[in-house]
Every structure is written in structure tokens, then in C-alpha cells.
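Subject: sequence -> C-alpha cells, single chain

Hey, anyone have a minute? Need the predicted structure for the following. Not urgent.
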Amino acid sequence: MILDSFGRNHNYLRISLTDNCNLRCFYCMPEEEYEFTPASRLMQADEIEAISKIFVAQGVNKIRLTGGEPLVRKDAGKIILSLSKLPVKLTLTTNGTRIHEFIELLKEANIQTLNISLDTLQSDRFMLLTRRDQFKLVYDNIQLLIRNNFQVKVNVVVMKGMNDGEINDFIEWTKDTPIQIRFIEFMPFSGNRWTSNKVFTWQEILEVVQTKYPIVRLEDEINDTAKKYTVPGHTGSFAVISTMTSPFCSGCNRMRLTADGKMKNCLFSKEETDLLTAFRKGEDILPLIQKSIASKAKELGGQFTADFEQVHAEEIQNRSMITIGG
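Reply:
Had a minute. Here:
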């Protein structure tokens, strides 16, 4: 077991395969002409497998692959298949643009659930948000996953004045479609132009939904990051990830490994532990993992509180979202 000083057991590892992406979402990537990490500085496929085994030996039973966009990495398929042989629940967060190329491999790897990032159901707004004209491709690939019996969760970062007017369009999508829409409060990261007045809160989201639909609160599990709901009679469901207004840190079981092999014990931690360099030197990295988790803050990386209106993004020391891996 990997325990922190608050008794939280960390059995969930999120691994970023690359900081590269074929979209340019402004809240994730600082600028269009972004310099991606050279391949030589990334964890290689065999290193990812070997390091993952060390975590699994300590009780990790769930691994999520993230990016950037994980499926743009040339050896993504090789990595997915190698990790699928470990005794873990393997899953993936993707922007959905390359699902049609990987659908059979995902089946072979026995991946059952995928999170797809999609912040709008309007093609012109998709172009504005991502700076790429690929809405139809992403939407069609979500339908492809559903037809192939994958469980699909759609991640929607809600930003005031940008896409908050589409909340009930997403809820309507759950009427006849077996998906879970996950509304995410806008969070501050380096270079993403976060301000508190862009945050559309958990309670505001619920208020919008309830102007049109009755809702029922579903039971959450201890490690859930999302507060789950359903509309009676709807095939799908929805949830809210309320990081800024109602953090879920007390049940946190997550660790993050960046594409360049740095361990983060929290999405918002300013400290990082360089596992890759130590691993390449032949050192035992388990003490480094344990030390990182032992130093984990009680909530939000120790950098701010849930009083989000008092948060000053420029004072938070962290990477951009694309280099963390979500």
C-alpha cells in the first residue's frame, strides 16, 4: 500500500504518454506554437511498463493513460497492450480524434471505459475552443464507441460566457444515449488565462439543469471525483467535478506520472519527484514514490482553498495542464 500522512491509500495511477496534442484547447495549452518535449526525454514504452509494475506491486489496481493526446504517440498501441496484461483496470482519457484508428486495439486490451473531452456540441464553437475543425470526427467516434459497447464519459469543462449555455443540450443528449456527461469546473493552470469570474460552479450547473429537468442524486463511492446525478427516464447520467467549490480531496487515491517521468502527488502540487532519471540510473524508485506520497498536502496541493474567488492564478506554482496529463 502507498499511504500518505492522512491515511489515504493511493491505488490509482494516471500516466501521461505525451504532452503532444493534435488540438489546441486554450485552457490546456498555453499557446499555439507550443514546444513539445523531445522523444528522448519521454518515458519509453519499456520504462512505462517497468515503472508501472513497481506501482502495481504496491497495490495500484487502476491505471489511466492521458496526454496531451495519448493516441498521437507513435507507440501508444504497444504501451496500451503491454499495460493491459497487468492486473489493473486500464482506461484512457482522449480527445476522441483517433478512436476510429484504435477501436480494435482497445477491444484487444479489454479497455471498457473511456473519457472523451468534448466541451461543446456546436461545431463552430468547437473550432473556437480547439482551433481545429474536427467536431464531427469526435462526435462520430463517440457514437462508434457506444455502438461497440464501451462505457463513455464525456468531460465538459464549463466556462462562464463560453459554453455554460449548452449545459442542458448535454443533458438532453443523455435522454436516449448511454453516456455520462461530466461537467468540470474551470481550474487554474499555468498559461490557461484562468480567472475566478470564468468559473461556472457546481451549484450553478445544477440550477441550470433544474430549470428544465428533475434530477436525482446518485450515491458516490469514497474515491469518486464526480458528484453523480440522473434525470428520471434518461438512459444516461451526468456528474459534476467540483474542484473549485467543493473539493473531494479527503478520498483522494490518485498519483500522476508526467510524460517525462516526474511524479506529482496531486494535480496542483508544485513539487515533483523525478522517477525517470533515478530509474535510468538503476536506482530503487520505491523510496522516492513513498516519500512523494508521504509529503502530500491535505487538499489542493496546499496551494489554495475552496474559496475560489480569493484564488490568484499567478501565485500558483504548477505546470500547464497539457504537461501534467489531466
